Amino acid sequence: MNSRTTITQKWIVSSIACAALLGVALLAQDNPAPTPPANMDLTGIPAPRGIYYRAAGEWVVLSSTVLMPFDKGRSVALEILNVGSDHAAAQMPGPHSGVQIGNDARPTFYLHGISPADVYLVRAVSKADYRELRMPISGHFGEWAHFRAKDVTDVEIQAVNGDVVAIKPRADLKPGEYALASVFEPRERWIRLGFDFGIY
User: Fold this and answer.
1) Buried b / exposed e across 50-76, counting CB within 10 Å, b at 16+?
2) Which residues pair with 193 in a beta bridge?
3) What radius of gyration do the chain's Cα atoms show?
4) pLDDT digits (tens, 9 = 90+) for 84-95
5) I want to staple 160 with a disulfide (CB 3.0 to 4.6 A). Which of 25, 58, 164, 178 is the partner?
6) pLDDT of 164-173, one tens digit each?
7) pTM here?
8) CA 98, 64, 200, 53 torsion: positive or negative?
């Protein structure tokens, strides 16, 4: 390999490296890091991973429940094999959430350390001693139970700062019981965590 070939190769590699750096710089310029909106004060937000609501200057943590979509009266084997029913139900303990929100039909919640991907805002049905989320069943093993469309409310998601994301309903919520449902394990999407609250 002669010196002229070596110089040409070095020039090509240098040009590619400069083009890549220029592309990264332009991308960073077009997509600056998110800064907290002026009306979203994160002062004092708790450190643990979770979903929080700010009320009267205080941070309120939403409790979580593992949402396992099983139908009462059937064994786990029949549940997994999808035998004998076209729907399942996940339950949250108690007829009402410990977090009840009044005078705010479109509350803003803050996801701290929780990805907003595949987060659903779902309405629950209150029973005597629990709340129920009904789920139609599909034949797909990894995601065989899903929320009913009529129970799901569209949400707006906004990056706030670092690993904190704000999420709020696009429309006013009617009085009742709700959960922000997040995928617990990406490979088993039918198992979710439900962070519950109520609107009155």
Assistant:
1) bbbbbeeeebbebbbbebbbbbeeeee
2) 66, 182
3) 23
4) 456 788 899 999
5) 164
6) 999 999 999 9
7) 0.71
8) positive
